[in-house]
Amino acid sequence: MRTGRPNIWLRQSLPWVLPVFLLLGWHLLSHREMIPNYLLPHPQQVLVAGLDYILGDPQKGIYTGRFWGDFSASIGRVLLGFSLATAIGLPLGLLSGRLNSIQLLLGTTLNALRAVPGICWLPLALIWFGIGLKTTVFLVALAAFFPIFLNVEAGARQINPILTQAGTMLGMNRTRRIYRVLLPAAMPHIVTGLRLGMGVSWAYLVLGELTGVPNGLGAVIMDARMLGRNDIIIVGIILIALIGRLCDTGLHLLLRLFFKSARRLT
Amino acid sequence: MSRGHLQIIHPRQDIIAEPVILEVNGLVKRFTSDANEQISALKDLSFSVAQKELVCLLGPSGCGKSTLLKLLAGFIKPSAGKILLNGEPMHHPGPACCMVFQEDALFPWLTVRENIAFGLVNSPLSRRRKRQEVDRFIDLVGLSDFGDYLPREISGGMKQRVALARVLILQPRILLMDEPFAALDAQTREQMQSLLQELRRQFAPTILFVTHDVTEALLLGERILLFDKNPGRISHDIKVDLPKIRSINHEAFLRLRTRINDLLKKE
Q: CB distance B167–A176 less than 8 Å?
């Protein structure tokens, strides 16, 4: 249990303190022109650019109204890569956590691969898949795989043996035990793994999109740099932060909606 | 809590000779230690248990009584020897031989009701009948108001009630209890001991009850198998010949307790 839990008013307001101060500081710095505008644009300029980027008529400018196209391209890539990573990482993690032979078989290799920073795969991915969807999805899947695999493995390994014994005793066969005991018991770790994987997915999405794909939130940032539109760069950064955060919350809500164990143990 | 007034009403006073339900023959269990040495947890154990009997396995920690229970539950395999249930060898762990663990072994993501219903998935009963069964067992262990609580929201004694209900609902032929009340406070333990006798009156399961508490063994048991300090052997097979209403103040009770304590010290 936490001690010294702050009251409701404080709990509601504390998370906003830092953003508000950052914004104020930024406003002050730009307003007094302590930092030249070409390095850091004025917040108001960024706001205008952001509204234009999201709401404007696409016919009227390079970045005007591009958001929805970029957003759907990016989120598609993230979800594809993340799903791939989950589809492979989750069952493999469960197996490796429960069966010593699988752990011995995979452990060394996967840990060696994990030590390689994801960015190292970029050149090779470009050669294999070219610029575009496949490279990005590959990078996202590869990066998201490790947190998912490792957390699920830890969760499956740490299940109290008494729970699996109780499951067997109460008449569960092997398959039933997976769904009725192993998965729910490992659920807190699975949720952690998936959330971390989702976070990493967004990081590697941007990396994949920086290589010259025509659309996507990462592509917009790179594009804006070349055209000297630093306001759009900041709009992109803020949007990625917001969408990443929303994806995390959404994922957690979905898991809690569909799994009793996620609802009650996390 | 003073236990001076403690008494328990035994469901079965006149023990009629019941048929043997469990037979253990030449049971041996060896473990291999980390240093690759062979450790014998059980050495050539033989005994039999009659139907409806409550047998207490009493002995110091490390004497192999918990290992015996795990073997009977089928969680581990014997190195040699036989376990016969109704004359047939036991193979898999399953509802025929159910265990109530010492520690909390409830599924933490399931409510009290769902925990008790857990083993019923294999039952051919209709959904409605299952609900009624679960209701009946929740009532039996006195948790009617707590059906929708999660294990973390109820006390240790309540958890053990749920653990009891969740196996009794499957009508096991043998109930294995591994120091089920050891972690409870004295008052709760007394309540649980009475509850156990109450449940025996209704279901008459055969029970093997592991404990290291002489008083508990004498209050509950019809027979006490005394384990040796030299691990893995049964040194004495004691019939508990006490009146139906057992009170820890009775002369006979005290005499028997002294005798057992002496036996335990001697070894």
A: no
- The average confidence (pLDDT) of chain B is 83
Say if A34 falls within a structural domain: no
Contact B103 A162 (CB under 8 A): yes
Shortest CA distance from A266: residue in chain B = B109
Closest CA to B80 of B24, B39, B23, B29: B29
Average pLDDT of A62-73? Answer: 82
The chain B residue lying nearest A160, using CA atoms, is: B105
Q: Within a domain: residue A27?
A: no
The number of domains in chain A is 1
Residue A23 lies in a domain: no
pLDDT digits (tens, 9 = 90+) for A36-45: 877 788 888 8
How does pLDDT run across A125-145, given as a tens digit for each residue? 888 888 878 888 999 999 999
Is residue A4 over pLDDT 70? no
B122 chain-A contacts, CB cut-off 8 A: 171
Smallest Cβ–Cβ distance between A169 and the set B99, B107, B109 belongs to B99
Q: How far is A173 from chain B (nearest CA, A)?
A: 10
**Which stretches within chain B are classed as H helix?**
65-73, 112-117, 127-140, 156-168, 186-203, 214-220, 251-266
Closest residue to B105, CB basis, from A166, A187, A261:
A166
Q: Of A79-83, A118-122, B7-11, B255-259, where does mean pLDDT reach its minimum?
A: B7-11
Q: Quote the pLDDT of residue B16.
A: 61
Most confident residue range from A46-50, A78-82, B137-141, B255-259: A78-82
Of B101, B109, B170, the CB nearest to A162: B101
Domain span at A124: 69-265
Kindly state the helix (H) or strand (E) to which residue A165 belongs, with its residue range.
helix A161-169
Cβ neighbours for B7, distance < 8 A, ≥ 6 positions apart: B245, B246, B247, B248, B249
Chain A residue numbers touching B101 (CB-CB < 8 A): 162, 166
Which residue segments constitute the domains of chain B, with CATH numbers given? 19-96+173-267 (3.40.50.300), 106-171 (no CATH)
Q: Which residues pair with B208 in a beta bridge?
A: B55, B176
- Judge: B109–A184 Cβ closer than 8 Å, yes or no: yes
Cross-chain residue pair A171–B122, CB shorter than 8 Å = yes
Tell me the two tokens of residue A71. 């957003």
Q: Give dist(CA B62, CA B91) in Å, integer.
A: 26
CATH code of A150's domain: 1.10.3720.10
Q: Do the domain assignments include residue A52?
A: no
